[in-house]
């Protein structure tokens, strides 16, 4: 484990590259560590739709009490499955912004997909992911 960490830290992310967006290798090298991190696991759990357990992606909806729900479930249901309130006409912008900006593994990670990147890159990837449900 220690050796592995040193390996990652030992790579050349020189000063001139600090302003650049890290390339995909940067994320890949960190993915296995990330996915074993309970904080990340907790973070990802907030993107799990409480109804279908799929990863939520924008548009992310919410009920008037603030419970979030994925778009397909929102379109299918008429009341919040958690509190039975009606849905809000406002989407959950905070979750949508988080999704777009934070680095996430592909939702098919557990099936073997190695893709990782900011959420708005995911929207394109996941609809074509070779590990996804066909
Ligand atoms: Zn859902
Ligand atoms: Zn609710
Ligand atoms: Zn994928």
From TrEMBL:
GO cellular component terms attached to this protein's record: cytoplasm
MF GO annotations: ubiquitin conjugating enzyme binding; ubiquitin protein ligase activity; zinc ion binding
GO BP terms: proteasome-mediated ubiquitin-dependent protein catabolic process
Tree of life domain: Eukaryota
SUPFAM superfamilies listed in its UniProt record: RING/U-box (SSF57850)
Domain RING-type residues, every copy: 49-84
InterPro entries: SINA-like_animal, Sina-like_RING, Znf_RING, Znf_RING/FYVE/PHD
Signal peptide (residue range): none
A Pfam cross-reference name: Sina_RING
Gene3D superfamilies in the cross-refs: Zinc/RING finger domain, C3HC4 (zinc finger)
Family matches, as PANTHER family: E3 UBIQUITIN-PROTEIN LIGASE SIAH2, E3 UBIQUITIN-PROTEIN LIGASE SINA-RELATED
Protein's recorded name: RING-type domain-containing protein
Organism: Henosepilachna vigintioctopunctata
């Amino acid at each position: 484990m220690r050796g592995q960490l040193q390996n990652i830290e030992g790579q050349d992310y020189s000063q001139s590259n600090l302003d650049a967006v890290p390339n995909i290798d940067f994320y890949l090298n960190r993915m296995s560590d990330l996915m074993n991190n309970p904080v990340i696991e907790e973070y990802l759990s907030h993107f799990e739709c409480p109804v279908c357990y799929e990863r939520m992606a924008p548009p992310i909806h919410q009920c008037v009490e603030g419970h979030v729900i994925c778009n397909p479930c929102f379109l299918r249901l008429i009341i919040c499955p958690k509190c039975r309130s009606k849905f809000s006409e406002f989407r959950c912008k905070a979750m949508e912004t988080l999704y777009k900006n934070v680095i996430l593994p592909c939702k098919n990670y557990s099936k073997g997909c190695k893709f990782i990147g900011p959420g708005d890159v995911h929207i394109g990837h996941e609809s074509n992911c070779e590990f996804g449900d066909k």
